[in-house]
Amino acid sequence: MSPSSLPKPASGSLLRLAAMSVGVAVVVLGLKFLAYLLTGSVALYSDALESVINVVAALAALLALWVAARPADANHPYGHTKAEYLSAVAEGVLIVFAALSILRVAVPGVLNPEPVDAPWVGLGVNLGASLINAVWAGVLLRAGRAARSMALTADGKHVMSDVVTSVGVLVGVALAQLTGWAVLDPALAILVAFNILWSGWGLLSTSVGGLMDAGIDPQTETRLRQVVSLEAEGALEVHDLRTRHSGRLTFIEFHLVVPGEMTVAQSHQICDRLEDAIRAQIEDVQIIIHVEPQEKAKHQGVLVL
Fold first, then answer.
1. Are 243 and 214 in contact (CB under 8 A)?
2. 219: number of CA atoms within 13 Å, CB side?
3. Is 119 in the same domain as 206?
4. Would you give per-residue pLDDT tens digits along the chain (305 residues)?
5. Of the candidates 58, 65, 63, which has an alpha carbon nearest to the alpha carbon of residue 91?
6. What's the domain range around 100?
7. Are residues 225 and 188 in the same domain?
């Protein structure tokens, strides 16, 4: 496999989205800190703290996409797409750190609750920031899933977790103001922090799985086996089927057993047909097929129909 045989790296449109994400994060950060300064709310302060981490996370996603967009070279013949997983791991860690930072501020607030100032103005500013985040999270998630970009998807999930945080904060501060129970402000912040911890753990699990060369999902593997079974006419079996992800790329390799008397040209035609059929089902895929004679059959794996 040569570097030139790999699918082309991510387009510049993904880099532009990542750069815009940094700008959106900075604007939202400014609005949320303004909301905190207007109110003195512990919950709004915790929300603003998470937005600081959002800016760092957006910068990490931009850097990862810039590295991932570099084509394969002699030192990295499989490309640089795993940089996106590193970004996603970093975002997962930052999400967990944000939750711990919120808990550090909110727990003392429960023990010594204080009323907030000018709550409705501050809530209005925070609501505006949350709406911006909600719209932008949707843009990132759609683009990330369409391009199979782990970095953009992780950034979108991070921004969406910020939206969930903000909703919880808004409810908490509003209830504290309406009921006079100041303890609701930091109490809701604690609940939001645990929700963020769960989100961060899920993102870390997915990202680490990619770094550890996790295989494709069961549904896609089932579809792959069906395609191989139907399109390998002339061969006998396929065994040692292995898959892995690297960013948006999928790597597939397997052994194809053919009759001993089959010529190289004939077996090559089967390989070409298989590759075309697999690429029609799975995007951005790199396929390696090892052809073996009949005596190498293991009588297991995928039986050719």
1. no
2. 0
3. yes
4. 444 444 444 457 888 888 899 999 999 999 999 988 888 877 787 778 778 878 877 888 888 788 877 877 778 777 777 777 777 777 778 778 777 877 887 788 788 877 766 578 888 898 999 999 999 999 999 988 887 777 788 788 878 878 887 887 788 778 877 887 878 777 877 877 787 787 777 767 767 766 777 778 888 888 999 999 898 889 999 999 999 877 667 889 999 999 989 999 999 999 999 999 999 988 878 899 999 998 888 888 776 75
5. 58
6. 3-211
7. no
